[in-house]
Amino acid sequence: MSGSIGQAGTVAATPLREPSPADRTLEAAAACARRFWGPRLLSVYAIGSLAHGGFSQYVSDVDVALILNDPLEAGDPIKIAALPDDLRESGAALADRVSVFWGSVATLNGRAAGGRFAAADRADLRQSGRLLWGQDIRHRVYPATLRELVIEGAELALHKLATPAAIALLTDSTALAAEDVRRLTKWILFPVRLLFTARTTRVAGNEAAVEHFCSVSAGAAARLARAALAWRRVPPRDRSITGLIDAGLLLLYRNFLDEYQLQVGSYGRSDLASALRTWRTELTHAPHRT
User: Fold this and answer.
1) First to last CA, the chain
2) DSSP 3-state assignment of 82?
3) pLDDT tens digit sequence for 14-54
4) 275 near 158, Cβ under 8 Å?
5) Which domain covers residue 113, as residue numbers?
6) What whole-number distance in Å separates Cα of residue 240 and Cα of residue 18?
7) What is the pTM of this model?
8) Are 104 and 68 in contact (CB under 8 A)?
9) Is 264 within the bounds of a domain?
């Protein structure tokens, strides 16, 4: 199929080109959603790097957002859970990388519970969502506030990266360098993207986040951020990258933690500020391996 799926399922005319594996996966996801929900499906969007740019064939997720008519139903989570298996059976090339975000206009705006849209995903949908099928409802989505985005980012970082296992990996450059390129670049660029959001109230791809970070930061942390961005396009041929990691990673995380401590504290979240401060101390004093 050439072109992209547009309003009410029509196909918008675009120059003919061979669809990429990501394009075909998006089309398969939209077709699957239409089978599952029929007239209850309001819109299908691409979000993430396939919407705001920077998609990497090696490491990026295929982020799909489904908007259903209100109200959500008890069986909707079951269908969401079944969708990845249906995609794999369709033969979609990147089915294993599909991440589904879903809800309704009411849940997106906090008037009803349910679905899966964190504040950052809601902001990404409103700012950059690319309509694949159905009605464009982005103007009906309330903007995420900076407070929401920063607090959510701090909580997510603490949950994913402040565990003993994560701290051990972040302080062992040899082990980190041995990770697959997808995980390696996520570990490095996650705080870069959170810093970008805290400073701009925007959710953007790694390119924009790294460009912004390097415009205000220099030295080893900036060099590591640029290198990780390059590895998303062309994975390193060997793992002799420990020098870059040793020089820049802890500086990068200190930059992120110092800024987020101050910001969440200004929002009255002393609990989060304290947890971030503890995490910083643990990173600083953990045994560092090379």
Assistant:
1) 50
2) helix
3) 455 678 999 999 999 999 999 999 999 999 999 999 998 88
4) yes
5) 4-140
6) 37
7) 0.88
8) yes
9) yes
